[in-house]
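INTERNAL AUDIT FORM
Audit reference: QA-55
Scope: verify that the stored structure record matches its stored sequence.
Auditor: D.O.
Record contents follow.
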Amino acid sequence: MSRFPQTDSRLAALRARMAETKTDLVALGPSSHMAWLSGVHPHGDERPVLLLVSQSYAGFLMPALNAAAAGAETDLPFHPWRDEEGPDAALAALINACEATGPELSVVLDETMRADFALRLLDALDQPRRRFTDDTIAALRAVKDEDEFRAIKAAHLINDRAVQAAIDALRPGLTELELVEIIKSAYAKEGAALEFCSICFGASSAFPHHYPGDTKLEPGMAVLIDTGCRVDGYPSDMTRSGFFGSANATYTEVFAVVERAIAAALATAKPGVRASDVDKAARDVITAAGYGEYFLHRTGHGLGIDIHEPPYIAANSDVVLAEGNVFSIEPGIYLAGQFGVRLEEIVILRETGAEIFSEMPRDMFTVEA
């Protein structure tokens, strides 16, 4: 049994996928892929770090100065190298241990690793055929187990309480950045770390990826809160929208359209359905209401160790969704110079459909100015 309890089962699952896809070698850099498989979170700098997996062997290329710390996290073998000697000999030994020799090996490369790491490996192999992780480790990571479900759920319950604290704190003159600090403090009180936080007041909410600033809250402003924390290695992500003061008729109409869109996508999301069909369910509602050109992004993204990972819920995605997939559904309408409304839920697909992680209502919140 590895020091990281999931390594043995995840290695077995990866090797089964490698056999199915006729993959000879999987190469991972210092990334969430490596962390998911091995529990190792090495420092990523210019010194090459690789985890290579074949059917017969799995081991690390590791700078000697990092080996002791990384060795506390895994029982997988290391091929260490020192600065004065360089990594080439250690890499050659690792490749030989993996029996990754001969021409035209089928190699899967971690798409997030540094280009110089990837090129060093490819140069050490004999005319390899390479692709990325879509049908191997990325496919495995897209299906969450119950331990992952519990971690993501715990993060979302903390997120619910932090967002409610933020809504309760709304007052005239409060800045976007001050509200970020209120949310950050709410996370810290429950042992969670801020993952990201987009606070949008007024016209700022019409920018889907607005960076909070010194905009002050005033009566008659829309408020959009998109925030997430990280607990035990897994994040939360949720968006709620509302109004400071009495919402005008246009805002109320747009909010209702977005709520219908998210409800339609939630009802469509089931195992066996294409990701593009979930996107279409939300987009059709918004288009029918006359706001199609103001829905500026895809409907969702996967969530796991990374806040954005496969599957992506987009119009051009032919991915067939599977039980255990975790992803966002977050349609929005953005009216430049006025306001934006986005509603977001993270869901896990069960046999019967989408189960929402958050337990916070999506109702339009209004706060007396």
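Auditor finding: record pair retrieved intact. The longest strand covers residues 221-231.
Action required: none
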